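A common beginner's mistake is to predict each chain separately and then try to dock the pieces by hand. The better habit, illustrated here, is to supply every component at once so that their relative placement is modeled jointly.
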Amino acid sequence: MVPPARTRNEEAAFGTGPDQEAFSLWPRHRLPGLTRRELLIAGMAISSVPLWGHFPAQAAEPMAFSEIAPGVYVHTGRHELQSADNRGDMSNAGFIVGDDAVAVIDTLGSAQIGADMRAAIKSITDKPIRYVINTHMHPDHVFGNVAFRDDKPEFVAHHKMARGLSARAETYLNNTKSALGEAAFAGTEIVLPTLEVQDKLTLDLGGRELVLEAQPAAHTDNDLIVTDAKTGTMFLGDLLFSEHIPTLDGSLRGWLTVIDKLESSPPARVVPGHGPASMEIPAALADEKRYWQTVAGDVRKLIAEGKTLSDATKTAGQSERGKWEMFDQYHVRNVTAAFAELEWE
Amino acid sequence: MLSKIASCFTVRRIAGVVTALMLAMPVAAIASDDDDPWPDLQKSVFGDRQIVEGDGVVTIEAPERAEDPAVVPITISVPATVQGPLRSMALIIDKNPAPIAAKFEFGPAAGSGGERRMTTRVRVDTYTFIRAIVETEDGKLHMAKAFVKASGGCSAPAPKDADGANADIGKMMVRSYEPEQAQTALRDGLVMIKHPNNSGLQIDQVSRGYVPAWFIRDIEVKRGDDLIFNADLGISISTNPNLRFTYVNDPDGNNAVQVTAIDSARTTFTGASANRALAN
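With all components supplied together, the output reads:
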């Protein structure tokens, strides 16, 4: 998802809920004289003391993952904008366990939530994390990469991902920092791919092959589809949104082409970038396809009638209102992008 | 920050109104973020000339909140009640690094009556007023303004499909819209130019430096031998500059529009609408 270019209210950006206290780096100003490391050690030491039991349960429990197929685990994020409260946990991420190694697919939206994800993986398997795959460049899918750096994995992505992310790095980091607040943002930095997928690449986890396929411009210009050949599970990243309105940062026409391609050879199950942990085609794609066809149809009609972008932002795709979460946050932006693309037809 | 602004301004050219003060002023506007940059801007662009606001000669339409700050649609209108030709029009975005987004000078084919409109898309960098100042035949200045909430429009990396965006730079689409009633005074025209219109404020991912400003700077739009308008454009105009405008409708004549555009690298692009206008 694109971080929206809007200023969130301060309360959200610098949330003061108990989660923050428990999770994030401890606010230094409260305990002057201690280093961050000392505080962290102190935090770990006292976390087992019963007195601290009033902290939210999630501080002690690992991040929730469901095993949607043997050895395939998915975590589902909240349908929200980035905030101090969700700490960047607002998309889906997963991992796949082979005989020899683990591949992580997307890392959520901050260093800390990435660390939580890593801890959860480690509680499920002790196999080494050999690959960290990003399905595309957006912060809610890549900003947890840094939490896996000490595992020395290959960071794998579409060959255009590094360019796209680098060009947006400053904007993404600034927007994320202001949305999460200093505490929840701490430690977040950009980790670019070390292994790029030109067209197709197969990774071997030991008795288990992952097929990575670079897509033409669709949700972004660097979408990568990851398929676990063993179970027929396809991680679509943000090529598939469910419940949460799709967001366009690539090419609408390209996206509809990818949807057609997926419908023509459906895998056993698909994992959306936003939505349930596991879905099946064609039902999985139906809402998204209807949304983009509606937007494209309305926008094309308005262009043919000689209407302007401004007209389109007020009317195009409004029949989709009420059918999606986050509609008000993203729909007009989608129409703007669609209009700017389709007016050149 | 200073170097960024300087790089924008070395390539800015605003016919007739460029002064030394113009170059120095926006820096001051940036430096004191909370201050209202308009009084200084007004002085540098219009000198001591009086500007009348809200007298109904001009209106500006902009979204209250820019959902995409790099593509903010703006429409400036002069209602049919205003008679006589317009001399010029300026579009100013107070708090953008280069506040003067566009300046238009109108010719005979822009018309002297009917509701005249100019629609374009701009980058908006922060919460700011956007102003349209129209100069009427009598030399008086009239202003309308709108407040827009946006952030980061000037530094937003524009192309969503980076390779697709650079595929056909200079490609132009020019349209003339058939009016609903043949005898109407004005009809609509449209100029679209494929151009990255780099603002000079975008980061280059390889060098980690700023992508040099590279944008459409001048556009001349004519109907036959008659000028509709000349425009001086700045870095606030969005990628793929898009101008929708009204011009004199000749029920019997040839309403085809010819366009010449020059970018900041002095490359010239030309285009024309089909002789037979597209049906509305």
